[in-house]
Predict the 3D structure of the following.
Amino acid sequence: MESKVSLIGRRSQKQMAFGWLPGLQVVMAAVAVMVGLSAFAAVAWAAEDAGSAPSARPGWALVIHGGAGTIVPDAMSEEDEAAYRRKLREVLDLGAAMLEDGRSSLDAVEAVIRAMEDCPLFNAGKGAVFTAAGTNEMDASIMDGRTLDAGAVAGVKTVKHPISAARAVMGHSPHVMLAGEGADSFAAEQGLEIVPPDYFWTERRWKDYLRRKEESEKESREEGSGSNDEHGTVGCVALDRNGDIAAGTSTGGMTMKMWGRIGDSPIIGAGTYADNASCGVSCTGHGEYFIRNAVAYDITALMKYRGLRLEEATRSVVLGKLKDQGAAGGVIALDREGHVSMVFNTAGMFRGFITADGTAQVFLFGENEGESAGN
Ligand code: ASP
């Protein structure tokens, strides 16, 4: 945390090293002191609160999640743990390189989520969970916090990168959300990569599906109620050098979901929201609750209308409202000042953040990683 404060110091020194306009130097020095103080305040405040991580400003910042759930060290092999940590770090670096280069937060969010969709560790793209009918139906959304433009696809079966289809809906259609065959056809028309449905088949998710199917038959439960035991939805929120926030989410949904079921992930305001005036949010968890509670929008609204700070807003929704309702899940969020929040009410959440000063951290579990899981 100290490094963030000193980074601002370094940056200020660099700015003041220019020999021109002594008057400007004074102004810059004053600004530097103010920035330093408020950044310090942010750091000090966040330090009180174990769930948050501050970041340098005005630079850029990026936060990701790879799903929340029963993620505990005992239930994970060392190899799997290493693989998750490696992949999370790899995609953080990918997004960081883009933001460092001055690319937009939207580009970074899309690229990071595409990389996660390509990775079978996550329940998005390749690695998506199975519906009760044994198919893969994916949902994704993306939002631009500068313009409030948004795009989403629901129930797609053949588009290799649902997040890019969501972005195409935002950029190249008059609509916000396309679903089912129409969404797949639109993605094809847009020249996005189309794959046969069995591209999404993975042995691990198929075994999860068979196990869940057997369980539900045995317990003669209502078929197709869905489960998010097999976590792995992915999300990303980024702040770029222009101060613009973008957020995106992509998922295969919940194992054994009913045919045509749509979760929160493609619903703007439920699973994803971004507004430069408050923050960007991407959610993961039991989608039905996230829809009913308009979780992503609720967090931005708490900041906007009630003046809550980012961490207060995320905690109040995830550890208050959702937990009280028995709704498992978590969120990642990022505000215009680069504060990062990663809050969940489950045992763990795959997550990480990276900031302009080079701070990068990846977490899988809860308290054992020195963080409050909020339980
Ligand atoms: N929120 C996703 C859904 O309900 C699932 C998850 O994030 O685990 O479709």
About this structure: Residues 1-51, 370-375 have pLDDT under 50 and may be disordered. The chain is about 40% helix and 20% strand. The CA atoms of residues 74 and 81 lie 11 Å apart. The pocket of aspartic acid is lined by residues 67, 228, 231, 233, 251, 253-254, 263-265, 284-285, 287 (CB under 6 Å).
